[in-house]
TrEMBL record:
Its main location: membrane. GO terms for cellular component: cell outer membrane. Keywords: Cell outer membrane, Lipoprotein, Membrane, Palmitate, Signal. The lineage of its organism: Bacteria, Pseudomonadati, Bacteroidota, Bacteroidia, Bacteroidales. This is FimB/Mfa2 family fimbrial subunit. InterPro entries: FimB/Mfa2/Mfa3. Belongs to the bacteroidetes fimbrillin superfamily. FimB/Mfa2 family. It comes from Hallella mizrahii. It comes from the Bacteria. Pfam families: Mfa2. Gene3D superfamilies: 2.60.40.2090, 2.60.40.2100. It is found in: Cell outer membrane.
Length: 341
């Protein structure tokens, strides 16, 4: 049987060319390559991802290989899906930094702008990663401001679709300070007669949570409440407790070895400072009670975000005016044993 190999080769070549043309024509229907960014928030006490339950607003800033700002994408949701992804298309192959500033509220819910963390306004091709900060303008803050998160990742993009993850950390804390009378029927035991405040330095934070501001800030209660005990079931020093003062405050990040971050309690009636103490040192004591050997004090302070402190206040007419025991969450600290700072 005679086979014309020349004709056979020519037909095969034409078929391949036709197939190549079809593939090229179909490229218009192919999805564009992209960089997909996912998020998690596992840097907490439970070491479990709480992104979908704690974060309500994400702002992702894109910087090129020279560290210059290119673009920003934002998204708010009542609740993000656990596998929520933010896609970026139209990027040229290269190295990119994706930096995220996130909040625990939707952007539309941010109203008190002087007392909330606000994000830097960046200029395309001029601003750098170091210019991206979150700042509170008010020098005294008595507001229940929104939780702040941040994180970043670097991606080597070769033109093909790729997925990476930004791991967020939380930089805000909540405190409930409770004052309990050391004896029953103490006169003048009202919220107006005591000043509770936290002094701080972290009014401006970068994407790594580093304090980059030069100003100080004071946090005062956003809510102060007198709570009465109708049942008299609780007692202190063998006497029934009929009332307690509750002060709720917030602050930004705590830094170990920064004693200027302090909790100060003053009796306004006498002008006496009942308590003036390094807050990071005091809060880090609780880390030892957890016996978590893999966490240093700073990591514990960053993972923990909710503190409950109880102080026992004596009558101002007595020689002593504050019990040496302070209850932090469910752990009692005897300050006479550990020493004050």
């Amino acid at each position: 049987m005679y086979i014309d190999w020349h004709k056979t080769f020519l037909c095969a070549a034409m078929a391949l060319l036709s197939l190549s043309s079809c593939v090229k024509d179909d490229m218009d229907d192919c999805p564009a390559s992209k960089v997909s960014i996912q998020f998690n928030y596992t840097y907490n006490l439970k070491d479990a991802d709480a992104f979908s339950t704690r974060v309500r607003n994400v702002n992702v800033y894109v910087f090129d290989g020279n560290g210059k700002y290119l673009m920003k994408q934002c998204q708010s949701a009542e609740q993000f899906a656990a596998d929520y992804t933010m896609d970026f298309t139209g990027l040229e192959p290269g190295k990119y930094t994706f930096a995220c500033m996130a909040r625990g509220k939707q952007e539309s819910e941010i109203t008190n702008t002087d007392k909330e963390f606000l994000f830097s306004q960046l200029t395309r091709s001029a601003s750098g990663v170091d210019d991206l900060n979150a700042s509170i303008n008010a020098p005294v803050n008595d507001y229940e401001f929104t939780p702040l998160f941040s994180g970043h990742t670097t991606v080597e993009y070769n033109g093909r679709s790729i997925t990476d993850t930004i791991c967020l950390k939380k930089w805000t804390n909540r405190y409930r300070v409770v004052l309990i009378p050391y004896s029953s029927n103490m006169d003048g035991f009202d919220v107006e007669n005591f000043d509770v405040r936290i002094t701080g330095i972290a009014n401006t934070l970068d994407i790594n949570g580093k304090s980059v501001g030069t100003g100080n800030i004071i946090y005062t209660p956003y809510r102060s409440t007198l709570i009465t005990n109708e049942s008299n079931e609780a007692n202190v020093n063998g006497q029934p407790v009929d009332k307690a003062l509750v002060y709720d405050l917030k602050s930004s990040r705590l830094f170990e070895n920064h004693p200027e971050q302090r909790i100060i309690i003053t009796d306004k009636r006498t002008g006496r400072e009942l308590f003036n103490h390094s807050l990071p040192w005091l809060m880090a004591l609780y880390n030892g009670s957890l016996r978590n050997l893999q966490w240093g004090d700073q990591e514990y302070l960053d993972r923990q975000d909710n503190y409950f402190l109880t102080f026992y206040v004596a009558n101002p007419s007595t020689d002593f005016y504050l019990s040496a025991k302070v209850k932090i969450n469910d752990w009692v600290v005897n300050l006479q044993e550990v020493g004050l700072k």
